[in-house]
Amino acid sequence: MQNNFKRNHNSRVSDIDLNSVDTEKEKNEQNNFFMWLPQEVTLYIFSQLDIQSLCRASMTCMSWFATIRNNDRLWKPHCLAVRAVCKREVDDDRKSGYSWRDILLRNYQKSQVKLGWLSGRYSNICSPISLPETIMCPMDAETWGEILEAELKRPNHKQI
């Protein structure tokens, strides 16, 4: 009888494991409510996210990754915000045929650095050692020219 119990017990465990796999699959499908939403609604929800949240959402699952990565409408508003600081760079990239997502990737850090310089955040730095490492990124001569021009126009700029 004990042998019979073991066999029945193993049989039940096996049935439970199989049922739990089916239940898990059903839960995942139920939890991915985006799968059931119309594409326009999904895109509207994603369009309300900031850049960091949008990037994080794209790492959630493959379907979100594909939806977010392949939809230029989601990246365009963020890219236009970068364009306010890096107009020439964004316009040149657009003419070269880059997607809005790629333009944002190419110019986001540059726009943050340039904005910091133009706003005067780094105006009172006395030596290159004092510059935060995070603000250094490759920029072309025209961009550095804009930054230098802004620095020279500042009222607290000391003429040597």
From TrEMBL:
Pathway connected to this protein: Protein modification; protein ubiquitination
Example GO BP: SCF-dependent proteasomal ubiquitin-dependent protein catabolic process
Location of the F-box domain: 31-78
Alphabetical list of PROSITE patterns matching this protein: FBOX
Gene Ontology cellular component annotations, sorted alphabetically: cytoplasm; SCF ubiquitin ligase complex
Subcellular location: Cytoplasm
Major localization class: cytoplasm
Pfam families: F-box-like
Subunit structure: Part of the SCF (SKP1-CUL1-F-box) E3 ubiquitin-protein ligase complex SCF(FBXO9) composed of CUL1, SKP1, RBX1 and FBXO9. Interacts with TTI1 and TELO2; when TTI1 and TELO2 are phosphorylated by CK2.
Cited function: Substrate recognition component of a SCF (SKP1-CUL1-F-box protein) E3 ubiquitin-protein ligase complex which mediates the ubiquitination and subsequent proteasomal degradation of target proteins and plays a role in several biological processes such as cell cycle, cell proliferation, or maintenance of chromosome stability. Ubiquitinates mTORC1-bound TTI1 and TELO2 when they are phosphorylated by CK2 following growth factor deprivation, leading to their degradation. In contrast, does not mediate ubiquitination of TTI1 and TELO2 when they are part of the mTORC2 complex.
Protein name (record): F-box only protein
The organism of origin for this protein: Myotis lucifugus
